[in-house]
Every structure is written in structure tokens, then in C-alpha cells.
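Quick question about two entries, pasted in order.
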Amino acid sequence: MDILTSAVFAWCAERRIGLRTQAGVSAASTAIELFERGYRTPDALFHALHGLSGTEMAHYG
């Protein structure tokens, strides 16, 4: 769980987005999907989230 929260907190902080906003919730859902696909470190998850557009993130969530 720490792996997911670290990545999502960092992603939201970089964008100045609240965790409870639609974008924050979408990032959390996407992080779970990415974790299940093999992204197992906070750094890997953060970089994967960073590279996704809003449309791509909606696909995961």
C-alpha cells in the first residue's frame, strides 16, 4: 500500500491536485492497475503515471 500511496501523493503534489478530486481518484485507480501490471516501486509507478494523458488514465480507471 505504501508503494501506491507514495506514487499517487507525489503525482498529485507535482500537479497541485487534491487526492479527493476526480483527477486524484483517477490517478489512484490507475496506480492500482499499473501495480497489477508489474510496476512495483513508487518510482516506477510515478513515472508511469507521469507519462499518461488524462484520456489514457480514464482508460485504466
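Here is the second entry:
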Amino acid sequence: MELNRLMSVEEAAEYLGVKVKTIYKWTTGEKRLPFLKLGSLTKFQLADLRAFVEGRVVKPLV
């Protein structure tokens, strides 16, 4: 998949395995999922979604 590909809210929710409502919460809450506004459309770049997930990896204590 192309990292600059723009995804809809529904596609982003499916990619992350969460509900659309959760995506909207993450764009306004503390988690601050990066997004683009194109007129009235909310879009997400695949690279931003991947970075969002990678930034939440909890490393084990050794």
C-alpha cells in the first residue's frame, strides 16, 4: 500500500480495527490522531496511521 494514500474515516477505522466513533474521538482527544481536512471531508494518510500505532507500542521492562 502506498504510504501517502488518503483514507476515509471508515477505511481508517477498518485499518485500525476500531469503530468510526473511536476515530472521531481520537482526532479531538488526547491521542490526537493526525488527519487532513479537505473541505468537509476528513482524510487520513496511511503513514500517519502506521506512525500512530507504532507510537503506542509498550516496550517490556527488562
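Reply: Residues 20-28 form the longest helix (9 residues). The helical segments are 9-16, 20-28, 46-54. Hope that helps.
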